[in-house]
């Protein structure tokens, strides 16, 4: 085990009975309202951008992400198979790029392509080395080889981490 472990607090999962679910239309989150995201969308909506979410992975993608995700952009940097999916990474991907489809919420970059990279285990724990490896894999990834129309996509990485001490290899990778 590394000297630089990562641990996220457990994500609460709230299950709402189908009888209580109703369509409310699409919402814009408080953070998006705060930065006036509708003004930013006049400049760009994520077209031409590939956002890689380094986090936990839930293979059962939310419907607002299915058209944003390309399976060739997903990989497991931990080497540990998923047993109990953790929705934190899906939550992060939704903030970044949930579809603008009139349902649920909408992401900041709703026209971006999303890659889901497993760098945390089902319990939210992991190793900084997995983050470093994932960053280098993304840097070396040729998007055009995965799908020709992705060749011009700009790569962006999103991760949520913390450490009590600086970790040189991560700083170097960034």
Strand content: 15-25%
Query: What structural class do the secondary elements suggest?
Result: alpha/beta
Strand order of the largest sheet: 4-6-3-8
Largest sheet: 4 strands, parallel
Shape: globular
- How far from one another are the termini? 22 Å
Structural overview:
The chain has 174 residues and is α/β, with parallel strands linked by helices. 25% of the residues lie in helices and 18% in strands. It is built from six helices and eight strands. The radius of gyration is 17 Å and the shape is globular. 31% of the residues are buried.
Topology:
Elements: E1 5-7, E2 26-27, H1 30-34, H2 37-41, E3 49-55, E4 75-76, H3 88-97, E5 104-105, E6 113-118, E7 125-127, H4 128-140, H5 143-146, E8 154-159, H6 168-173
Parallel strand pairs: 2-5, 3-6, 3-8, 4-6
Antiparallel strand pairs: 1-7
Nutshell version of this structure?
With about 170 residues, this protein is an alpha/beta fold. The protein has six helices and eight strands.
Please tag this protein with its features.
alpha/beta; 25% helix
């Amino acid at each position: 085990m590394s000297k630089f472990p990562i641990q996220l607090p457990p994500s609460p999962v709230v299950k709402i009975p189908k009888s209580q679910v109703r369509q409310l239309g699409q919402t814009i989150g408080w953070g998006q309202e705060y930065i006036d995201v509708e003004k930013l969308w006049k400049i760009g909506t994520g077209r031409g951008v590939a956002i890689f979410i380094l986090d936990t992975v839930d293979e059962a993608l939310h419907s607002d992400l299915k058209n944003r995700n390309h399976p060739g952009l997903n990989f497991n940097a931990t080497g540990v198979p998923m047993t109990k999916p953790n929705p934190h990474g899906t939550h992060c991907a939704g903030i970044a790029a949930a579809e603008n489809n009139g349902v649920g919420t909408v992401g900041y970059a709703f026209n971006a392509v999303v890659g889901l990279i497993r760098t945390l285990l089902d319990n939210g724990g992991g190793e900084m080395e997995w983050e470093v490896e994932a960053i280098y894999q993304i840097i070396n990834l040729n998007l055009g080889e995965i799908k020709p129309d992705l060749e011009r996509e700009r790569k962006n990485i999103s991760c949520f981490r913390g450490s009590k001490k600086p970790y040189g290899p991560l700083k170097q990778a960034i």
